[in-house]
Amino acid sequence: MASVHTLSNGVRVVCDPIPGLETSALSVVAGRGARFEPADRSGWSHLLEHMVFKGAGERSAKAIVEAIEGEGGQINAATGYERTSYQVRCLADGLDLGSAVLADLILRPRLEADELVREKQVIGQEIAEVADTPDDLVFELAQEAAFAGQPLGRSILGTTASIGTATPEALSDWRDQLYAPDALVISAAGAVDEATLLRLAERDFAAARPAAAAPQAPEARFAGGQVVTARKLEQANLVFLLPTVGVKDPDYFALRLFAEILGGGMASRLFQEARERRGLAYAIDAYSETYADQGVLGVFAGCAAEDAEELAKVAAGEIAGLASSVTDGELARAKAQLKGSMFMGRESPLGRAEQAAAQLLLFDRLIPPVELAQGVDGVEPADLRRLSDAMLAPGRAVVSVLGPRRAGAAAGAFHQTLFGRA
Predict the structure, then answer these.
(1) Domain 3-205, what fold?
(2) Do 283 and 236 meet the contact criterion of CB atoms below 8 Å apart?
(3) Predicted confidence band at 403 (pLDDT cuts at 50, 70, 90)?
(4) Number of alpha carbons in the 13 Å side-chain half-sphere of residue 159
(5) Which distant-in-sequence residues (6+ apart) come within 8 Å of 325 by Cβ?
(6) For 26, phi and psi rounded to 5 degrees?
(7) Which site from 119, 187, 257, 353 is most exposed, i.e. has the minimal number of CB atoms within 10 Å?
């Protein structure tokens, strides 16, 4: 059973032993990310995540990975809008080293000027790669339209101009704010002993000190809009977004089930109608993306340009009609799929460690699996109808179209079908 402890400086520690395993996962997660960046520091959280691997404590960039890999482990990191995570997978006796290395990365990075110059070039190439990848860029354009003028509407990567202003000193100041102890959770799962983990956490993270000022994330506002970008491509890429609830909302599970019924698998409405019956798209799916206070229901599709307009009408029609016509079988299947994905994820030590850290940062407690299952099972058709009504009431949506010019008609068709206006 997982337990939670708090160090004297506010850093929280989660220990989740899993009997029978020979490996452990250790995640150190900061409850801050790109959403906390002011415009002039856009992309700095991601840049910082890259920079700490260039040297930390007494270890060089090469020594960091050699130390972990030399004991059979793996090390990685990820920056999101609301969290930044550093992860080590290791054998049962590798936790000591893993904790020491992650503490160096988070608390004692070198942030050397010459390495910063090189890493800005690397991230510049990463930004260019997104621009050259249609099925990545179409999501970036949709996100920008959905949350225009807000941190959530800016790319996690930033721009070459915004990361170009970063200096080692300014990046160090941002590190102090981003990784302050009040926002840190150390989470371990697998072959882990509670007393050992607490000793390591005290040894390696008790030195973390509060920041002089804590960054704040502004409230999210879904703007809506149409983004049509003509490109000479073989296929049109489409993203449709609607505003909905955040992860803390009571209708969170209703949203997850709505997305599953709409386009979560081969039995979903969109797959069956758009792909199987009409042959309009090879790839089509629905998803939900949730932040602390806001979420989006999304649909992605790739299709021939001449089919884009009709596909947009089908997607809008399925969204509009789902809640009023959901069957008992559809809802039961969606519940089974959602519980299956949640519990399969818990069979991974890293998945468990990351989930526990996220729950603690969002809810200040761990949520037992049985409570998650009850949340899913408790959703009724009336909940889907209430969610749908609230989602459609503002009359706002985002349509992002990237591909041949004739595919641009999909934008107006989606709005017209859903709201009665282009």
Answers:
(1) Cytochrome Bc1 Complex; Chain A, domain 1 (3.30.830)
(2) no
(3) very high
(4) 7
(5) none
(6) -125, 120
(7) 119
Handedness of CA 268, 80, 243, 248 (dihedral sign): positive
For residue range 109-155, list pLDDT tens digits in order. 999 999 999 999 999 999 999 999 999 999 999 999 999 999 999 99
240: DSSP letter: E
**Distance in angstroms (rounded) separating the CA atoms of residues 269 and 253:** 19
Q: What is the pLDDT of residues 301-317, one digit of tens each?
A: 999 999 999 999 999 99
Model-wide pTM > 0.90: yes
The CATH topology of domain 225-419 is Cytochrome Bc1 Complex; Chain A, domain 1 (3.30.830)
Can you give the residue ranges of every domain in the chain?
3-205, 225-419
Beta bridge partners of 88: 26, 75
| Three-state DSSP class for residue 45 | helix
Q: How many CB atoms lie within 10 A of CB 73?
A: 22
SS3 at position 189: strand
Confirm whether 3-205 and 225-419 share one CATH topology: yes
Phi, psi of 113 (to 5 degrees): -60, -45
